[in-house]
Amino acid sequence: MLTYDGINGNSLEFVWGVRNETRTFFKGFIGGGWLNGGNLDDEDFFAGQIKFSDTYSKLDGNGLVYGTMDVGQDFTLIDRGPRVVISPFIGFNYWQETVNGYGARCNKDDVGGFYCGSPGSIEVPFSTKVITNKASWSSLRLGAGLTAKLWDRLRLRGDAAIIPAAYLWNEDSHYLRADLGQVPNIKDSGTGWGYQLVGEVRLDLTEHWALGAGVRYWYAQTNGKSDFVHIDVTTKLQDFTSERFGVFSNVTYRCVTF
User: Fold this and answer.
1) How many structural domains are present in the chain?
2) Is 201:249 a contact under the CB 8 Å cutoff?
3) Run of H or E residues at 99
4) Dihedral angle sign, alpha carbons of residues 183, 185, 191, 194
5) For residues 66 and 12, what is the distance between their CA atoms, to the nearest angstrom?
6) Could you give the 3-state DSSP secondary structure of residue 180?
7) Which residue, 82, 85, 239, 245, shows the most beta carbons closer than 10 Å to its own?
8) Domain harbouring 226, CATH code
9) Cβ–Cβ < 8 Å for 54, 43
10) Local confidence band at 75 (pLDDT 50, 70, 90 cut-offs)
11) 137-178 per-position pLDDT tens digit
């Protein structure tokens, strides 16, 4: 079992949105950036959940790429006082993260360190790259946005989307496992589900310019299969999960044509 945790990310995004006179909209964003920090816990088990190996590795990079496209329709719920608009949509999301792991330090296991060594011993120096993981999700989004204009210039916006179908393609490259063949030597795949949440506050500076800030949370999980591609072995993939939480800020320019 591989557990990647504590990975920080920074990215830049380009966001767009178009609405026509019937209030049908097309919106989306594309982004990319870099990852840093974090750790990898690699646990191996015999039958009966006897843990015979448990190692710690440092993570350092690499990067992430993602994008979303939605099409939907605006409907006004409240038109007096605080104006409230609901916006159901259907869309597509792509999300890819690549991380590199370095070194291997032994943790406590169930066999007294017979295979790895005593807890705390360093089996592979942290200057040596031992693994690269590249996880890619392609997902269908079904959801709705809710926008409330509280005052003349201040708006609150939230999006909630369920992911009824999320396809995973994951590649593991184990650089020190000559018995697994050339990298990438393990490929995981499966179809699962997830959800995505966004909350934002936006301040209109002028008719065209606005400032915004908010939070975003993405979650996806699946079962499936793991292919050891060079030794013709396939095993069951259980509980592959990806999560990403972040804060963002933006500057928006609006063109009004009708």
Assistant:
1) 1
2) no
3) strand 83-106
4) negative
5) 10
6) helix
7) 85
8) 2.40.128.90
9) yes
10) very high
11) 999 999 999 999 988 889 999 999 999 999 999 999 999 988
